[in-house]
Amino acid sequence: xxxxxxxxxxxxxIDGQWVEGDSKETKEVINPATGEVIAKVAQAGEAxxxxxxxxxxxxxxxxxxxxxxxxxxxxNKVADLLEENADYIAxxxxxxxxxxxxxxxxxxxxxxxxxxxxxxxxxxxxxxxxPAPNDHKFEIVYQPxxxxxxxxxxxxxxxxxxxxxxxxxAAGNTIVLKPxxxxxxxxxxxxxxxxxxxxxxGVVNLVMGSSEVIGKTMTDSDTVRKLTFxxxxxxxxxxxxxxxDTLKKISLELGGHAPFIVHSDADIDAAIEGLASxxxxxxxxxxxxxxxxxxxxxxxxxxxxxxxxKVKTLxxxxxxxxxxDIGPLIREDAIDKIQEQLDDATSKGxxxxxxxxxxxxxxxxKGTFYAPTxxxxxxxxxxxxxxETFGPVVPLISYKELDEVIEMANDTEFGLASYAFxxxxxxxxxxSRRLEYGMVxxxxxxxxxxxxxxxxxxxxxxxxxxxxxxxxxxxIEKFVNxxxx
Length: 485
Known about the structure:
The chain is an alpha/beta fold. Helices cover about 40% and strands about 20% of the residues. Helix 2 (about 45-65) packs across helix 8 (about 210-220) and helix 10 crosses helix 11.
């Protein structure tokens, strides 16, 4: 076990205290690069989750009514601690999740940026004045919604926690967080910074355990007035259904199946660099990862040759090895899913140009490593055209006309992220206007910043994170009609 892992708390955090679960049960946390058990974390059930909700409810009035400058100061202190301890959090993240340490560092520092940006944005929840009769004042004010339940995934165990908690806290809400059971240690390391910053007891609470039990406890609670979830579309739909009886405000950031269009006039080298960066980040285990690569037939051969050459240069290895570009997949079932899609595609005529196999020799033997893969000749008869691939596979699809590729790109139930590389202003305008996605990157793949909205349409969910829209997901709009008599 790494010494850094031994430093991390493994208990629940409820009402300002580190506590064991009532049952004393624990869950093992596995390093996907080595297969070893690195920690055992406490598990909560319905009772502990209810106590966390009660603690958040009790803490809410004082946190809501705290002078704004004092709340901002505390959140900036959190940001300072997240930045100061970014390498610690990053190392924990890499060991339990697998991504390269250099990626984990960027994610950790990004969490500090999110807290700083949202702390300042809380000063800009201005409200509105509406023209009214002379003896009246019509105004809209924004107020915190109350207790927020947050459920976060394993693929960005720091980024998703900070992306949800920073705006919720900045707006004056209190939190109960349920992190992924695969990567709870990163969330625990972040909560250590909350404690060190001096956030009042009950403002932030963390429970680990059965997703079904904890999720149901949150959705059944009338005290939890807002639920924010990032994860799969099926689970998001179930949480949406479960929240109906309590009429919660909901934000759902769900699955994606991003198209990546390379038009005939694109800068091929720039497109390949952008694709490799976006596709192989976190080993393709990203909701905004390019999953269907549409390349114009006139440049397809050149693009494919250069792409294969680029992918050959990527090194797969333990994320703690500085030379590694790609780490392991999170679990065995991730490999099974990739292999099923590749077997289906090749049985229907697709060809594997590179990779297409699990890595098992030497240092790869005990981990869940998979070779970066380039798959050519993909069409709509294949599962991979419609099913999200959470892994290092690049499926290539040829097209002739702009109308054709836009129609194919939109032929999915998902609508989170999309990308296109082109030079013509007219083509860029057409693509950006007609793609049915919440986010479009044109000649760029960096589509997530604190100041820009992040979210999807269709079965990719609704609500926005980041930007001025993100913090407004955590407030209610109150209309006040004042008559002067």
